[in-house]
Design brief:
There is one protein chain. Helix content is 36%, strand content 16%. The protein has 455 residues and is of the alpha/beta class. The protein has two domains: 173 residues, Aspartate Aminotransferase, domain 1 (Alpha-Beta Complex); 258 residues, Type I PLP-dependent aspartate aminotransferase-like (Major domain) (Aspartate Aminotransferase, domain 2, 3-Layer(aba) Sandwich). It has a seven-stranded mixed β-sheet, sandwiched between helices. Strands 11, 12, 13, 15 and 16 form a five-stranded antiparallel β-sheet that branches. A four-stranded mixed β-sheet has the order 1-2-3-14. β1 and β2 form a beta hairpin. α11 packs parallel to α13 and α12 crosses α13. The longest helix is centred in the C-terminal third of the chain and has 23 residues. The structure holds pyridoxal-5'-phosphate. Pyridoxal-5'-phosphate binds next to α5.
Length: 455
């Protein structure tokens, strides 16, 4: 390996690189020197449990030997513009359709999550001849102008005033719902009723698609109440609206099944993906369309495209990644290890600062509160992104990282989404660190014997 001059990297980084979602003066990044499985090491040799798979994409773990080997074969398949057929593009599209819900037929390749969502919006508009797009408040769909308009959380404010025709509705978030529903089914009925009203108010004939993360990830792993997604599907059918599921974060085994939608009893019309398709070893995303949508474009021009649609290097890495999922039984491992993680997460409920834990497979969030009774969040809504760096959530996540538990938070939830290769022992070691840090944090900042220290 090339030797690394860490101080030069840091100096150049500070001087020349703009970092995402941050006040640049507060960015002092570490340099990853080495990675292996669920671990990475920084420039000082300190070891971290990567408990968020970087940005929930490194499903096969760091430095996977088969992917490193695959890179040696890059160049054997010639580079080719999107108009050509290539072995890796054709093979990856087939491999994705083989594991997608059985109504799915074709793949349009893009570069990452956000632009995949942009293309999905265009495809839905073309296929329906309608223009309005519904999406949800507690959602993140990416940072491009289109995906930013789809996103419902605070990161959308920077693309506002928004595009006409992008309509938001509420995500069921039962932990923070002020109505005390007698059952999940009652909650489902309530939210579906509201959604149907909104569809009627907006004019069903103008609505092309309802866009949703089946399980919103960054916004706190919000698992929908029973029957909710099936109910949205029924509303889509009733009004001729396409249902688009953003599986960028939840796809490729994260939830213990290939796609999050596989946990439920419905099929979307369109799905978008990125992250886990290559596990970030090379950038790639895409849009999967149903047989019905695919057939529409047999006789209509697909008015969208990208220079790198189906890029040879990324699709080759994608093919190798798909083989690893299968050969190493990673989806099965995510499900089995998800059960181990679930026990440790449920055990966290005994902490006074843990308001809620939500988990499915290796996709989990721990919601931290100042007060369990009032559910006052540890960070007020909308105060992420530098506005509350010195606040309690910032302190908690820094403490976790200092202790070798690498992750990030969003609003009042801490993400726990390790690589799917994790073992039972590694989960237990990492969760021991989490508990130790939470104990220290509560003592130091929250329950000091006096009143709770304000942010
Ligand atoms: C659900 C979801 N959709 C879209 C995106 C955007 O993906 P990208 O950052 O690759 O554009 C993300 C990123 O975290 C995501 O979680």
């Amino acid at each position: 390996m090339k030797s690394i001059d860490v101080s030069q990297i840091k100096e150049d980084d500070q001087q020349y690189v703009l970092h995402s979602w941050a006040k640049q003066s507060s960015v002092h990044p570490k340099v990853i020197q080495k990675g292996e499985g669920i671990f990475f090491w920084d420039e000082s040799g300190k070891k971290y449990y990567d408990m968020c798979s970087q940005l929930v994409y490194l499903n096969v773990g760091h430095n996977h030997p088969k992917l490193m080997e695959e890179f040696k074969h890059i160049g054997e398949i010639p580079l080719a513009a999107p108009g050509f057929a290539t072995a890796s593009k054709a093979e990856l599209a087939r491999k994705i359709i083989e594991v997608a819900p059985d109504n799915m037929a074709k793949v349009f390749f893009a570069n990452g999550g956000a632009d995949s969502n942009d293309h999905a919006v265009k495809i839905a508009r073309m296929a329906t001849g309608r223009y309005k797009i519904f999406s949800r408040y507690r959602s993140y769909h990416g940072a491009t102008f289109g995906a930013g308009n789809l996103s419902g959380e605070g990161r959308r404010f920077y693309v506002e005033p928004g595009l006409p025709g992008f309509i938001k509705f509420e995500t069921p978030y039962l932990y923070r719902e002020s109505i005390d529903f007698e059952s999940e089914e009652a909650a489902t009925a309530f939210y579906l009723d509201r959604l149907e009203n909104q569809i009627l108010y907006e004019g069903p004939d103008s609505i092309a698609a309802i866009f949703m993360e089946p399980i919103p990830g960054s916004n706190g792993v919000l698992i929908p109440p029973k029957g909710y997604l099936e109910g949205v599907r029924a509303l889509c059918d009733k009004y001729g609206i396409l249902m688009i599921c953003d599986e960028v974060m939840s796809g490729f085994g994260r939830t213990g099944k290939m796609f999050a939608v596989d946990h439920f009893d419905f099929q979307p019309d369109i799905m978008t993906f990125a992250k886990g398709v290559t596990c970030g070893y090379s950038p790639l995303g895409g849009v999967i369309v149903s047989e019905k949508v695919a057939r529409y474009f047999d006789d209509h021009v697909l008015m969208t495209g990208l220079t790198y649609s189906g890029h040879t290097v990324s699709t080759q890495i994608g093919c190798a990644t798909m083989d690893i999922y299968k050969d190493e039984h990673l989806i099965e491992n995510a499900s089995a290890m998800g059960n181990i993680l679930a026990v440790r997460l449920e055990h966290l409920r005994r902490f006074d600062s843990v308001g809620d834990v939500r988990h499915i497979g290796l996709f989990a969030a721990v919601e931290i509160v100042k007060d369990k009774k009032t559910k006052e969040p540890i960070i007020a809504y909308g105060m992420d992104y530098g506005r509350d760096k010195a606040g309690l959530m910032g302190k908690f996540v820094s403490m976790l990282i200092e202790h070798g538990f690498y992750t990030y938070s969003h609003e009042s939830s801490v993400m726990i989404a390790p690589p799917l290769v994790i073992t039972e022992q590694e989960i237990n070691e990492a969760m021991d660190i989490f508990e130790e840090v939470l104990t220290l944090f509560e003592k130091k900042y929250l329950f000091t014997g006096q009143s709770v220290i304000a942010n």
